[in-house]
Amino acid sequence: MTTHLAIDDELINEALTLGHFKTKEDTVVTALKEFINRRKQLEIIDLFGHFDPDLDYDYKKGRLS
Q1: Number of folded domains in the chain?
Q2: Residue 43 placed within a domain
Q3: Which domain holds residue 31?
Q4: Which Pfam families does this chain map to (predicted)?
Q5: Is 39 domain-assigned?
Q6: What is the pLDDT of residues 9-65, one digit of tens each?
Q7: DSSP conformation letters of the chain
C-alpha cells in the first residue's frame, strides 16, 4: 500500500543519519516498528502488580542442568 506523507525534512534526515538507513522508507518503517514495540512494552509494564503470583510455580524446574 502506498501512502504519501508530508514529513519534516530535518526530522527524517536526522533519523536516517542516526539509524544508518539507506532509504527514507526504511527509516519510517523502523520508526513505526519501534514505536509499536515501545507502546506494547508500556502496556505490559502497566500490568505489573495486577496479578497475584502463582505460589506453586517452580522456576528452578525450567532451568537447564
Answers
A1: 1
A2: yes
A3: 21-47
A4: VapB_antitoxin
A5: yes
A6: 999 999 999 999 999 999 999 999 999 999 999 999 998 888 888 888 888 887 876
A7: --------HHHHHHHHHHHT-SSHHHHHHHHHHHHHHHHHHHHHHHHTTSS---TT--GGGGS--
